[in-house]
């Protein structure tokens, strides 16, 4: 099972910015959709943003206008630019890759990176 690797999380004050990255440490099948999820204690993991292979994007309402998802297909790398952060953005951010062959391979997940926004 492929384990993706996230980086870029940390502690930031409200109004600050962070840039998250996610990459695969090994060769992987061609990826269709990539996405970022957020999870806080005692709540389900929720979708923050997703991006299709051709660059089409979709955002949670809470992320619109502040977060930007992007990807580098040749490098199998996913990014999430977080601007104007709010305390409610705090959580563990997970990246998710869905290969075209998902019914054979399953989806790939990272271990998560903590984002903490102080007020």
Main pleated-sheet profile:
11 strands, mixed
Instruction: Specify the number of helices.
Output: 1
Structure classification? mainly beta
Cα gyration radius (Å): 14 Å
Shape descriptor? globular
Strand content: over 45%
Number of strands: 11
Distance between the termini: 38 Å
How does the SSE layout of this entry go?
Elements: E1 3-7, E2 10-13, E3 18-23, E4 31-39, E5 46-51, E6 57-59, E7 67-72, E8 77-82, E9 91-99, H1 102-105, E10 108-110, E11 113-118
Give a quick rundown of the structure.
With 119 residues, the protein is mainly beta. Helix content is 3%, strand content 53%. Strand 5 and strand 6 (57-59) form a beta hairpin.
Folded structure, characterized:
This protein has 119 residues and is mainly beta. The chain is 3% helix and 53% strand. It is built from 1 helix and 11 strands; from the N terminus they run E-E-E-E-E-E-E-E-E-H-E-E. Strands 1, 2, 3, 4, 5, 6, 7, 8, 9, 10 and 11 form an 11-stranded mixed beta sheet that branches. The longest helix is centred in the C-terminal third of the chain and has 4 residues, at 102-105. It is globular and about 45 Å long.
